[in-house]
Every structure is written in structure tokens, then in C-alpha cells.
Amino acid sequence: MRQGNSPPRRWWRATATAAGAVTLALAGAAAVGTQMASSATTGCRVDYSISSQWSGGFTAAVTVTNLGDAVNGWRLTWSFPAGQTISQLWNGSYTQSGAQVTVTNASYNGAIASGAGVDLGFNGTWNGSNPVPTSFALNGTTCTGSVTGTPTDTPTPPPSSRLPCDIYASGGTPCVAAHSTTRALYASYSGPLYQVRRSSDNTTRNIGVLSAGGVADAAAQDSFCSGTTCLITVIYDQSGRGNNLTQAPPGGFSGPAAGGYDNLANATAAPTTVNGHKAYGVYVAAGTGYRDNSTNGIAKGDQPEGMYAVFDGTHYNGGCCFDYGNAETNSRDNGNGTMEAIYFGNIKVWGYGTGNGPWIMADLENGLYSGRNAGYNANDPTIDHRYTTAIVKGEPNHWAIRGGDAQSGGLSTFYDGQRPNVSGYNPMKKEGAIILGIGGDNSHGSAGTFYEGVMTSGYPSDATENAVQADITAAGYR
User: What confidence score (pLDDT) does residue 15 get?
Assistant: First the structure.
């Protein structure tokens, strides 16, 4: 028997285009449940959809609609028909005994008005086949209906209402920058992800998505770049704030390209697969860097913010500094606390964790921090999943590091506490530029690969980030 926790609120609606779906409804009177005095219902509908499926695993969304009187406290039960098991659930708590599953409400979604619904979702495992359940009950009332559609082993796009920036917005911490060369980070986004320039004639082309909320149109890049080399010239901001990343200018350090600028990434150096479709990441070799020194909406001073990135956990070095996040607006070192960025690598000059690295740390300027103390912090582990989720977030005298496997499982918290016990970091003096692949002063000795990342306004809750992680694992990076 396993007990789930309570990740984020209402972040997912089931869709008719999911790989497998079932709708079960009872409009008339039925037996009244006796579990909770104020929780009787006389009718219900359950929409269950499999949004993504791979060998041995799947992600499902469940929407429960109350067709009877209002309830205050709910319990949803069903049986899996083929031995499936739940490994992670959000928007409620669960127990599973054999095939029987019981999900109860979280503290924030127990009340369901007549005609209203509640959303929950989960990651699960399967073996042999993955048919959808055929019967659900809400507080003892059976919701009956018919099965439509059969799930397959072919990856399908995630539900259009659950992409990372939609999740952050529902948690009250909207994205103010959203960058990815692999997929849309908003359900409604249909614009360009990035721009490439081919060396044969210096012509540029924007690379968009296959459909709104979908993955990159890598075939368009392949066609455009056929027979020549392409570089990534722009990584577009999907938030609508215009915080696009372009070739980093010289600063405290000059880059190796003309005029002291940094190099641009080779557009084909980091191939990947997302939801079964080919895509490309941003391959950062030493000397490569992107930046925006004139941004809109990025946290400044001691304002709260959050950020995550998906990196290649096997591509790193000990150079300074493979960062994504908030930096100085003049490309120079302006002192302690003028940065707040995710760092990934195994440099040990300022801070480090257990093992040989790489580690997720925070670049706060003049220090990479793995916890409250300068130098070694035992709670920050080596983390080197092929696809790694890295999170740093901060607010007045409080910050955290979190991380996990971007292909499966949840997030772990490596540090959550006060600002470093070194002068200059409380209060912070963030300046609001955005960097990728470099340090705040344009130090460019680092290496790494970036697939997607965002920055938020406000300090995201762990529950919101847990839901984002569930979406990342459902995206099917391979």
C-alpha cells in the first residue's frame, strides 16, 4: 500500500485527443455514500485519459464532475484491470491495494459544487497491456459509462492545458521568460522557438512548433540546413515579454567571436527526441554563450523568483560557468548578490557537494553555493541523469535548490533555507539580465547542453514545481 502526497492545484484537464480515454456518467439518482456526512452525491462523471505512454510507464489525467448536490470532501475509487500501479499522484492523496485505488481530496480541493469538477493526475506503471478502468465511484456513487479509444505504445503530445508555464500561472507564479528549442512551454504557444542561420549564405529561418503547444519542427531545420552548417542565433521567449536570448556580448571577459562576442551553438550538435519527435537542444562548448541585458519583468533586487532548466546531465565540465538565470545587466561582476542563476557542473573553486559532481548549485556572484555555507555542503548530491531537471528559487533571506531525473520520478530538495552566511547576499541585489551557458561577467569556460527552462515572477511552491516535473517527465525526452 502506498500513500501519495498533495502536489499542485488544478493544472490539468482531460482532452478528447488523448491516447486512451473513458467517460463515465450517471445523471440519475444513485446510492448515497456514507463515508463523510457532507459528501453525498447523486450523480457524477469521470473523464480519464492517457496522455503519454512509453514502455512500462504512462501518465494519466482524471477529471471528476459532480452532477448532484454539492459535496465537501470526496473519495474516488476504481480498480485497474491489468495490474497497473500508481507511482506519483497530484491534487490528492492515494492508497492502492492490489488493483483497488482510492484517491481522496487535497486540503484545497475538497469542495465540489453541483456541476463543477476537480482535476487530478498521476504517473503509473504497466506491464503487458494498459487498458483504461471501466468503473469509478465518487463517495460510493457509481459513475457508469463506456470506454472510448485504446491506448497504444506510441508517445503522444501532453494535454494542451498542462505545459510548464500554464502550471506556474495556475500556481500564482507566472513565467516571465520561457526558453526552449525542443517544445512549446505554453499550451497556446504557436510561435517560433528559435532561429537558425546557415553558413552557406547567412540566411536565417525561424523554427516553430508542429502545432500549438507541441514540439519543435526539426524537419524544417533539417531541410533549411541541408548540406551546410547552421548556428542557433536566437532563442525566443515564449512568455510574450520579448526576453529573447541572443549572442552574448563582451563584458568582464571577451568572447572568442568577432568583436569579443561569444560563439553561437551549432544547431545540430544536441539531437534529442521529445514525445517521439526529433528535436535539438542547445550545445554549449567552452566559448559559447547567450544573453539578454535588457529584459522585461525579471526579478530585481530582493524580489522573489523561481527558475528551472532541463540539462544533459552527462555533458558538463569544471569551467566557469554553465548558468541559466538572473545576472548583471552590464555583463560584469557587480558584487555579491547581483546574480541568481542555476549552475550545473563540477567546479569546486567556490562550492560543491558530495561525490565528484556534477552538482546543481546557485550562482549568486562571487560564489557558487550548494547550501548556506560557502564551500562544501553534504546535502547537495552528485546528479547526472541523462536528462536532469535543475531548480533554483529565491525570496528575501530564503532560497532553495531542487532537482531530479527529467525522464521519470519526482523532485528532491537539496537545500531549503536562509541565504548564504557570507556578507552581501542578504538582501540580494539582482539586476535582471538573463544568461545561458556563461557567468554573469561573461566568463565562458563552461560546457553543457540546455533543452528548456523558465524564469518566474514570485517564489513557486514545491507543489507547483512537482507538477512541472510531472509534465517534464511526461514530455518523453529520449
Answer: 32
Closest CA to 8 of 469, 471, 466: 466
Is residue 273 scored above 50 in pLDDT? yes
For residue 370, the tally of other CB atoms under 10 A from its CB is 27
CA angle 329, 334, 339 (to 5 degrees): 65
DSSP assignment of 304-325, as one string? -EEEEEEEETT---SSTT-EEE
User: Coil, strand, or helix at residue 218?
Assistant: helix
pLDDT class for 97, splitting at 50, 70, 90? Answer: confident
- Can you tell me whether residue 280 is helix, strand or coil? strand
452 is a catalytic site residue: no
Q: Nearest Cα to 422, choosing from 376, 378, 375, 373? A: 373
Task: Please state, for a pLDDT cut of 90, what percent of the chain lies above it.
Answer: 68
Tallying the residues shown for the chain, one arrives at 478
Specify whether the backbone of 409 is left (phi greater than 0), alpha (psi in -120 to 50) or beta.
left
Rounded to whole angstroms, how far apart are CA atoms 79 and 138? 13
Residue 223 in 3-state DSSP?
helix
C-alpha cell at 355: 561525490
373, 421 Cβ separation under 8 angstroms? yes
Q: What is d(CA 404, CA 338) in angstroms, rounded to the nearest whole number?
A: 27
For residue 343, give the C-alpha cell: 549552475
Give residue-wise pLDDT tens across range 105-138. 887 788 887 767 788 888 889 888 898 888 888 8
Residue 221: phi and psi, rounded to 5, are -65, -45
Respond yes or no: is residue 441 known to be catalytic: yes
pLDDT digits (tens, 9 = 90+) for 216-255: 999 999 999 999 999 999 999 999 999 999 999 999 999 9
Confidence of residue 8 (pLDDT cuts 50, 70, 90): very low
Catalytic pick among 292, 340, 441, 471: 441
Provide DSSP, 350-361: SEE-STT--EEE
Question: Which helix H or strand E contains 458, and what residues bound it?
Answer: none
Catalytic residue among 305, 312, 365, 431: 365
